[in-house]
Design goal:
By secondary structure, this protein is an all-alpha fold. The protein has a single domain (about 65-355), classed as Farnesyl Diphosphate Synthase, CATH 1.10.600. It has helices spanning about 5, 10-15, 35-40, 55-65, 70-85, 95-105, 110-120, 130-150, 165-170, 170-190, 200-210, 215-225, 235-245, 245-260, 265-290, 295, 305, 310-315, 320-335, 340-355, and strands at about 160, 160-165. A hairpin with a 2-residue loop joins strand 1 (about 160) and strand 2. Keywords: Isoprene biosynthesis, Magnesium, Metal-binding, Transferase.
Length: about 350
């Protein structure tokens, strides 16, 4: 097998170290030490930010706003679930469509499609225009879960409190169900997108292709496999998760902004926001894996520890990993400063939701 260095040519990342901020109440974030700041890295010099008193005041404002995030999530998830149900009707060959629906409709928080719709609305777009791409993103996410659970990958038996796809339908069908969902995602965007220009549709298809390919999810996954059983640096772990996990959240936010007619500055701001919450998602996931039970998570807990997998708690310690999560929340909030609170409220709350989720 090729060496890790040959699979992970991102040395420039390690030379672009930026200080991550701490934030005083109301978020009650802990203070990040100077040495810890030096450890934390991001792939773009443009992602540097500082926390100001104004930001703290604005954070207080959105916290005290009347926006009902839980109601918003429930309503949006119901819409997404209905759209997903309609997108994969049962038909011949019955077994493959049953397998596709089994994982696609197995619940979940629908974070990616809701982020897509929220970013579309933020830039002034019609949320309906983002529905096809939102469904496509969930199809791709589901594909990644099906394949990730396979015995040749993470070898998980449970997902969302249910037997994984290969346990329910067999490995051969699980592989094909994932493949079919990936293909359907692109078809769905191309054939169901209405009310937007062809240029926007082409741009989101390109964004999808990049996020799932060798420069995205697949790239992160192969480097993750290559690092198994090895001692890796924090920068290498960051590369894995910016590509394996964060990239699909980034595509969700960016595609929504494109479909909503967002201008280049909007897309760049939201791309940065998405990278922060994407990395945050993985840091929190790693923390939950060692602090929660399988019943609480709806999947096998302690799997990373049992397989000696590199995680943020393992490389940084649990307390430092929590500090890192706090800092990422602050950075994500900072990228939303440009926008009106009423329009940006879902994305502000999303960052906190990802940071403080319990499963």
């Amino acid at each position: 097998m090729a060496s890790f260095a040959s699979l992970c040519p991102h040395e420039s990342f390690t030379h672009q170290l930026k200080r991550l901020p701490t934030l005083s109440p109301p978020l009650k974030l802990t203070r990040v030490s100077h040495s810890h700041r030096r450890m934390l890295q991001f792939p773009s010099a443009a992602m540097k930010a500082t926390v100001t008193k104004g930001m703290i005041a604005e954070t207080q404002s959105y916290k005290e706003s009347a926006f009902q995030f839980e109601e918003y999530m429930a309503e949006m998830a119901e819409r997404v679930n209905q759209a997903l149900d309609d997108s994969v009707p049962l038909r011949h060959p019955l077994k493959i469509h049953e397998a596709m629906r089994y994982s696609l409709l197995a619940g979940g928080k629908r974070v990616r499609p809701i982020l897509c719709i929220a970013s579309c609305e933020l830039v002034g777009g019609d949320p309906v225009a983002a529905h096809p791409i939102a469904c496509a993103l969930e199809m791709i996410h589901t594909m990644s879960l099906i394949h990730d659970d396979l015995p040749c990958m993470d070898n998980d038996d449970f997902r969302r409190g249910m037997p994984t796809n290969h346990k329910a339908f067999g490995e051969e069908t699980a592989v094909l169900a994932g493949d079919a969902l990936l293909s359907l995602a692109f078809e769905h965007v191309a054939t169901r997108s209405t009310g937007v220009s062809a240029d926007r549709v082409v741009r989101v298809i390109a964004e999808l292709g990049k996020c799932v390919g060798s420069d995205g999810l697949v790239g992160g996954q192969i480097v993750d496999i290559a690092s198994a059983g090895k001692q890796i640096e924090l920068s290498e772990l960051e590369y894995i998760h910016l590509h394996k996990t964060a990239i699909l959240l980034e595509a969700s936010v960016v595609c929504g902004a494109i479909m909503g007619g967002g201008m280049a500055p909007d897309i760049e701001r939201l791309r940065k926001y998405a990278r922060y919450i994407g990395l945050l998602f993985q840091v929190v996931d790693d923390i939950l894996d060692v602090t929660k039970s399988s019943e609480e998570l709806g999947k096998t807990a302690g799997k990373d520890l049992a397989t000696d997998k590199a995680t943020y708690p393992k490389l940084m310690g649990i307390d430092k990993a929590k500090e890192f999560a706090d800092a990422l929340v602050a950075q994500a909030h900072k990228e939303l400063d440009y926008y009106d609170f009423a329009k940006a409220a879902p994305l502000y709350h999303f960052a906190d939701y990802i940071a403080y989720r319990q499963n």
